Amino acid sequence: MLEKSGRDVTDLYLKGAYLTLKKAKEVNATTVILKEYSPSCGTSMIYNGDFSGEKTVGNGVTAALLKRNGLQVISEEAFIRYFDE
Fold first, then answer.
1. Organism's domain of life (predicted)?
2. Which of 42, 77, 82, 83 would bridge 46 by S-S if both were Cys, CB 3.0 to 4.6 A apart?
3. Can you tell me the mean pLDDT for 47-75?
4. Which residue range forms the structural domain that includes residue 27?
């Protein structure tokens, strides 16, 4: 993953994802609510990485890791819609 400046921040994203998984396990979380569109937290759509505001289908790094480890991951948008119904 690259910042707008071109700096590779992949290791930082991975470190954050693994720290989030560790904390989720520590608190015995079963569901995690994350920010949609984030390249780290997007649960179904993420920004495409060219800094144009365009989105693409996919999971962010943290969302994907949590899902692969059996946690339910939902976006804040889905969470809000649930309570608005």
1. Bacteria
2. 42
3. 91
4. 10-84
Instruction: Answer yes or no: pTM beyond 0.90.
Output: no
Q: Is residue 2 part of a domain?
A: no
Amino acid at the residue 5: S
Round to whole Å and give the CA distance between 49 and 2.
8
pLDDT of 6-19, one tens digit each?
888 999 999 999 99
46, 23, 82, 68 alpha-carbon torsion, rounded to 10°:
60
Pairing of strands 72-75, 31-34: parallel
Please report whether residue 4 resides in a domain: no
In the DSSP assignment, the letter for residue 23 is: H
Q: Residue 45: how many CB atoms within 10 A of its CB?
A: 17
Q: How many structural domains comprise the chain?
A: 1
